[in-house]
Structures are given as C-alpha cells and as structure tokens.
Specification:
By secondary structure, this protein is α/β, with parallel strands linked by helices. It folds into two domains: about 160 residues, 3-Layer(aba) Sandwich (Rossmann fold); about 120 residues, Up-down Bundle (Four Helix Bundle (Hemerythrin (Met), subunit A)), CATH 1.20.120. Helix content is about 55%, strand content about 10%. It contains eleven helices and seven strands. The strands form two sheets. Strands 2-1-3-4-5 form a five-stranded parallel β-sheet, with helices on both faces. The protein has a two-stranded antiparallel ribbon with strand order 6-7. It is elongated. It starts with 9 loop residues before the first strand and ends with a helix.
C-alpha cells in the first residue's frame, strides 16, 4: 500500500465472528491504521456510526442479514450519523442474486465474498482513497454510481462527487470545518436531487393511476402505485422541513392527502381526487423548474390547488 497519512482514519469493523474482527484489526494495524473500533451486532454498528463518525465501515451481511443493508441505506439518506458519505465494504458468504441486489440497493462502495483476504481489503481501501466512484441519486437510491452503461430510453441521471473523508485524511487534506461544510452542502444537493427524482416519479405514477381509475381497471399494481405516491409525498415533506421551500412542501402535503383519500375510497374514488392529481403533478413540476423569482407564482398555484381540495365535495 502506498504510504498515506492514515493514523487519523476512523474505521468500524462489524462482524459476528470475533476471530475475524481481531484478525482484520491486526492486519489494518500493521499497515498503520490506528483508529479502529469493532462491533459484533447490528445495534453496536449503529452506535459506532453515531458515536465515532467513521470514514470507513467494514461490515458483514451475516451481522443481521438485510438489517445491515437497511442501516447503510439509512446512513446514505442521512438518517444515521453525521457523515452519509462514509465508505462501506460489505462481506458476504456467497454472491447469490438476492443478497447482491440488497447490497447494491443499499449504497455500498464494494462487496467482498468471504473468506476475507487481508491484502484484497487493503487494495480496495487504496482504491476508495484514489478512485472512489461518484454518487447518483434516484427515488430509492443514494450511493456510488453502479451503472456500467445507460439503458436505452432511461432518463440521464447526473453524477456528482461527494466528500470522501477517507481520502481527505489519507492524503493529508483533512480540515474538520471545511469537510463539515462540504458534507452539509452535498447533503442538501442530495435532498434537491431526491426531491426532483420524486417529482418525476409523481408524474409517472399519476399518468398511470388516473387512467386506471377512470377506466375501472384498478388492480393490485394500481393500488401499489397509490401507496408509493403517499410515501413519496411524505418524503418530500420530510426533506423540506425547516427549509425556505414551504410552498413545495405544501403541495406535497396536499398530494399526500389526495393519495390517502384515493386509497381509502377503494374502487369508488372521489372525482375531485382524480381531477386534482394532474394539477398537483403540474404544480410540483413547475415548482422545481422555477428559480426563487418564481416562488410567488408557485405559492399561488399551491394556494389555488389547496382551495379546490378544501372546497370540492
């Protein structure tokens, strides 16, 4: 491994196998890493993420099977710890399709099939210092860009570099205040990207939900789309909490109310709900396209839509 300034790098090793934790810790220590802690349970890993703010996480899928992937996903979505961009390597017993899919959707940097080979881990850490992949944001995913090519007919999603505290410390460029500013900015950029992706999905869902109800072709898939729309609306509201974009949050709140009303109505939807959905979609799309100068226009649209919702029986 090329000489790096790695003394201050914070690493969490989370594995139920005590011997493996000790072995890996010893190897990393030999290479000069000093800030290493370990955990034997999922709860212990979450505690360490919250307490030490790690730069690198080495964890085993067998710690709690899908629970590990869910924890990493929550971290990537800035719901656990203070650094959603910590590098993550996951150890798995075998590369079966279900586990690899779960791991890929969590936002991991790398997957290693056991047995864990110390030199291979060192090589991967070096790679993450030098050539870590940029991140992408979709409705469900935040993490390194795992696409090899863009599928025909799919929307082009922008990639962006995120703060890499592992690299900053290793290369002697770590400034605590500056990195916190970078993390805060990147987190807001992710919020903005996530909201934009959500609004595109709202439009996609409504274009399919409204015709299905109008044609009496409601099925399990349609109802699943309604539930999805409720979750998307709630996430937009949460991401805009305490921001200057209350007009968009208000639209999302109304969208959530309409979607819940639609769900509760079963196969007999209220006409006002079906009529309002396209208007809400258009208003949300207009909101993300307008700069601050257009906020008053969006607020007027929002007020108009909400007034219709309150006033229509």
């Amino acid at each position: 491994m090329v000489k790096h300034q790695i003394d201050d790098i914070k690493i969490v090793i989370a594995d139920p196998n005590r011997q493996l934790r000790a072995s890996l810790k010893g190897v990393l220590h030999q290479y000069g890493f000093r800030g290493i802690v370990d955990a034997s349970t999922l709860e212990g890993l979450e505690d360490e993420i919250r307490i030490i703010n790690p730069d690198l996480i080495l964890c085993d899928y067998d710690l709690d099977e899908s629970g590990v992937c869910e924890l990493i996903k929550r971290m990537r979505h800035n719901k656990v710890g203070q650094n959603p961009f910590a590098a993550v390597i996951l150890f798995i017993e075998e590369a079966n399709e279900e586990i690899v899919t779960q791991a890929s959707e969590a936002g991991l940097d790398d997957i290693q099939v056991k047995p864990v080979v110390a030199q291979q881990i060192i090589n991967r850490v070096t790679y993450l210092i030098k050539k870590r992949k940029p991140f992408v944001v979709t409705t469900d995913y935040v993490g390194p860009d795992r696409r090899k090519t863009l599928r025909p007919g799919t929307m082009e999603i922008p990639i962006f570099e995120v703060p890499n505290t592992l690299a900053s410390k290793a290369l002697g460029k770590y400034d605590p205040r500056e990195i916190q500013r970078e993390i805060a900015k990147a987190s807001w950029d992710i919020n903005a990207q996530k909201i934009e992706r959500h609004i595109f999905q709202v439009s996609y869902l409504i274009e399919r939900i409204v015709p299905a109800y109008n044609e009496g072709a409601i099925n399990k898939e349609t109802l699943g789309m309604v539930v999805r729309m409720v979750k998307v609306a709630d996430d937009i509201i949460e991401r805009l909490k305490d921001s200057d974009y209350g007009h968009i949050a208000n639209l999302a709140t109304t969208l959530g109310k309409v979607a819940r009303s639609l769900w509760e109505s079963g196969t007999l939807p209220k006409r006002k709900d079906l009529n309002l959905l396209p208007e809400l979609s258009a208003a949300l799309s207009a909101a993300i396209k307008m700069q601050d100068a257009g906020a008053n226009v969006v607020q007027k649209i929002s007020a108009s839509v909400q007034e219709k919702y309150k006033g229509t029986v």
